[in-house]
Amino acid sequence: MTSEFGLIERYFVGRQPSRPDVVLAAGDDCALVEVPAGYQVAISTDSVVAGTHFLANADPAAIAHKALASNLSDLAAMGATPAWVSLALTLPNVDEAWLSRFCDAFFALADQHQLQLIGGDTTKGPLAITLTVQGLVPVGQALRRSGASVGDGIYVTGSLGEAKAGLDVILHPDQHRETEAQTLVDAHYFSEPRVAIGQALRGLASAAIDISDGLIADLGHILERSQCGAKINISQLPISASLAQFLRERSRALQYALTSGEEYELCFTAAADHDTAVMAIAQSLSVPITRIGEITQTGQIELHDDGAALDWQLTGFDHFKDENNE
Amino acid sequence: MTSEFGLIERYFVGRQPSRPDVVLAAGDDCALVEVPAGYQVAISTDSVVAGTHFLANADPAAIAHKALASNLSDLAAMGATPAWVSLALTLPNVDEAWLSRFCDAFFALADQHQLQLIGGDTTKGPLAITLTVQGLVPVGQALRRSGASVGDGIYVTGSLGEAKAGLDVILHPDQHRETEAQTLVDAHYFSEPRVAIGQALRGLASAAIDISDGLIADLGHILERSQCGAKINISQLPISASLAQFLRERSRALQYALTSGEEYELCFTAAADHDTAVMAIAQSLSVPITRIGEITQTGQIELHDDGAALDWQLTGFDHFKDENNE
């Protein structure tokens, strides 16, 4: 009838097979879903805003992927299996080419994880996307930030630092000439949330978080909730050949690995006797998992370089940092 | 640690008693909730954006109430009992007075409905709020748009038209001199979602929707989903004394009642033999419910004035209407 609804219907409805637990998706005041017995629902909401999280002229496929990946990454960090997503899309105007590219990328990633779009809202205003994702996890098996114990190993998936280097390239187009530029930009926009690893870690990881604010900041959240400290060997940090080549200096690459936000890798802890099982997951899912340190009693993060102490002062990423330091 | 998290914690965490079905609220990658056996989950997402849904300098209490009321109204229209809400708040800067007023109004309305804030996201950018609310409804008892049958009565709760008149006052400050001005502005910002009525209508209403785009537009959604038409007697439309006084002409007041969006009253249908039970709900909950017409076969909405046909051409509210008419 009216174009707002026409807009939603044309681009978003009927693009996916319906999950059996979705009783009603778009087309009513609410969606209706069913939760199987023995499961809890994990819920996460994230917004990405033009000018804060991405440039307004960024590729809509990149925006869609990054917005959904960041939310799926939160489910991964809880060990939850993706189920449903609600999309609130605020657009300055109706641009069909933009919408079409946005939707193709959104549904490609959603379909890969059997995540069904169940509803949302389309409004006029400055470009922004808010997603609420929901996933299912067997009762009592969710991975939390609060379970780390002294002596547990600290692990990260994939490699670290590329998202920040990719942002450097995006913000300084002269760096596009570097050989690794496109690889790093793709790492910034098109990271793969570690959904399968998160689920495989149920019963093994003692604590988990996804790296959205930077390793130091996010590990800090685990330490805060678990009331413990950490010792990190920076020489173990997983750094890709592209990042090492792009940044040239080893210490810069390591600092990127420690502070790069929006990586959407997992950082988790596990007791020493689960180390073999953790490494078997890396093998079976073909994703690197690296032990980078150990949980301590101190309440702080101590960095060392194969035993040599370091005093780097590093913090994570914070949108409001400049104007309201605490 | 960083101010973004400080911000969230200080204003939002620990403000409400924890519901027994909330396993984990803020403080991890996801919230965790449990759904009781025999219930389905109703989910709705709505965004309100400065400049589109409210003026950027509007009272933050009004913005908070309106954003949450519009979402609760969607749960009401499904007959769902409110349970959990996620809040994505995008702010141009950290204004403590603004946040404090926003939160007070948000939690006042949430507490009234035992709705627990379970998580969200705070980001920097143009002022906007996206809420995802979730409610519980016994399996098979959700009120849908699709169940209206020929001969069913058409009902609305409360009175209609004040939200649009309130917006007139907000946009034209010279109208503030009118005696009814503040009543109408309050109706625009502080409407009460019909949550209790929605739940009471389970098993009675054949179809329901909340009036967010205007009666004509929203009744149109019921007719489309139910594949039927409607005959409305405009002389039955519930109009408040304040609205009648403010608009002076009867026909203008009626047109406001037919098209005013963001009313957050319910429009529903019920078989004739449920009419007494419907009126008993109005009595017991002390909210007016008015029968305004009847479902027909035509596929159209016919307006009449106590039998005299009308040919008013009226449409609902649509943010994108100006640039993309269909």
Automatic annotation (TrEMBL), chains A, B:
<dbReference type="InterPro" id="IPR036676">
    <property type="entry name" value="PurM-like_C_sf"/>
</dbReference>
<dbReference type="InterPro" id="IPR016188">
    <property type="entry name" value="PurM-like_N"/>
</dbReference>
<feature type="binding site">
    <location>
        <position position="317"/>
    </location>
    <ligand>
        <name>substrate</name>
    </ligand>
</feature>
<feature type="binding site">
    <location>
        <position position="74"/>
    </location>
    <ligand>
        <name>Mg(2+) 4</name>
    </ligand>
</feature>
<feature type="binding site">
    <location>
        <position position="46"/>
    </location>
    <ligand>
        <name>Mg(2+) 1</name>
    </ligand>
</feature>
<feature type="domain" description="PurM-like N-terminal">
    <location>
        <begin position="27"/>
        <end position="137"/>
    </location>
</feature>
<feature type="binding site">
    <location>
        <position position="53"/>
    </location>
    <ligand>
        <name>substrate</name>
    </ligand>
</feature>
<dbReference type="Pfam" id="PF00586">
    <property type="entry name" value="AIRS"/>
</dbReference>
<dbReference type="Pfam" id="PF02769">
    <property type="entry name" value="AIRS_C"/>
</dbReference>
<dbReference type="GO" id="GO:0009228">
    <property type="term" value="P:thiamine biosynthetic process"/>
</dbReference>
<feature type="binding site">
    <location>
        <position position="29"/>
    </location>
    <ligand>
        <name>Mg(2+) 3</name>
    </ligand>
</feature>
<dbReference type="GO" id="GO:0009229">
    <property type="term" value="P:thiamine diphosphate biosynthetic process"/>
</dbReference>
<keyword id="KW-0067">ATP-binding</keyword>
<keyword id="KW-0808">Transferase</keyword>
<dbReference type="GO" id="GO:0009030">
    <property type="term" value="F:thiamine-phosphate kinase activity"/>
</dbReference>
<dbReference type="GO" id="GO:0005524">
    <property type="term" value="F:ATP binding"/>
</dbReference>
<protein>
    <recommendedName>
        <fullName>Thiamine-monophosphate kinase</fullName>
        <ecNumber>2.7.4.16</ecNumber>
    </recommendedName>
</protein>
<feature type="binding site">
    <location>
        <position position="145"/>
    </location>
    <ligand>
        <name>ATP</name>
    </ligand>
</feature>
<keyword id="KW-0418">Kinase</keyword>
<comment type="function">
    <text>Catalyzes the ATP-dependent phosphorylation of thiamine-monophosphate (TMP) to form thiamine-pyrophosphate (TPP), the active form of vitamin B1.</text>
</comment>
<feature type="binding site">
    <location>
        <position position="46"/>
    </location>
    <ligand>
        <name>Mg(2+) 2</name>
    </ligand>
</feature>
<feature type="binding site">
    <location>
        <position position="212"/>
    </location>
    <ligand>
        <name>ATP</name>
    </ligand>
</feature>
<feature type="binding site">
    <location>
        <position position="262"/>
    </location>
    <ligand>
        <name>substrate</name>
    </ligand>
</feature>
<dbReference type="InterPro" id="IPR006283">
    <property type="entry name" value="ThiL-like"/>
</dbReference>
<comment type="pathway">
    <text>Cofactor biosynthesis; thiamine diphosphate biosynthesis; thiamine diphosphate from thiamine phosphate: step 1/1.</text>
</comment>
<feature type="binding site">
    <location>
        <position position="44"/>
    </location>
    <ligand>
        <name>Mg(2+) 4</name>
    </ligand>
</feature>
<dbReference type="InterPro" id="IPR010918">
    <property type="entry name" value="PurM-like_C_dom"/>
</dbReference>
<feature type="domain" description="PurM-like C-terminal">
    <location>
        <begin position="150"/>
        <end position="304"/>
    </location>
</feature>
<feature type="binding site">
    <location>
        <position position="29"/>
    </location>
    <ligand>
        <name>Mg(2+) 4</name>
    </ligand>
</feature>
<dbReference type="GO" id="GO:0000287">
    <property type="term" value="F:magnesium ion binding"/>
</dbReference>
<keyword id="KW-0784">Thiamine biosynthesis</keyword>
<dbReference type="InterPro" id="IPR036921">
    <property type="entry name" value="PurM-like_N_sf"/>
</dbReference>
<keyword id="KW-0460">Magnesium</keyword>
<feature type="binding site">
    <location>
        <position position="45"/>
    </location>
    <ligand>
        <name>Mg(2+) 1</name>
    </ligand>
</feature>
<feature type="binding site">
    <location>
        <position position="213"/>
    </location>
    <ligand>
        <name>Mg(2+) 5</name>
    </ligand>
</feature>
<keyword id="KW-0479">Metal-binding</keyword>
<feature type="binding site">
    <location>
        <position position="74"/>
    </location>
    <ligand>
        <name>Mg(2+) 2</name>
    </ligand>
</feature>
<feature type="binding site">
    <location>
        <begin position="120"/>
        <end position="121"/>
    </location>
    <ligand>
        <name>ATP</name>
    </ligand>
</feature>
<keyword id="KW-0547">Nucleotide-binding</keyword>
<feature type="binding site">
    <location>
        <position position="74"/>
    </location>
    <ligand>
        <name>Mg(2+) 3</name>
    </ligand>
</feature>
<comment type="similarity">
    <text>Belongs to the thiamine-monophosphate kinase family.</text>
</comment>
<feature type="binding site">
    <location>
        <position position="210"/>
    </location>
    <ligand>
        <name>Mg(2+) 3</name>
    </ligand>
</feature>
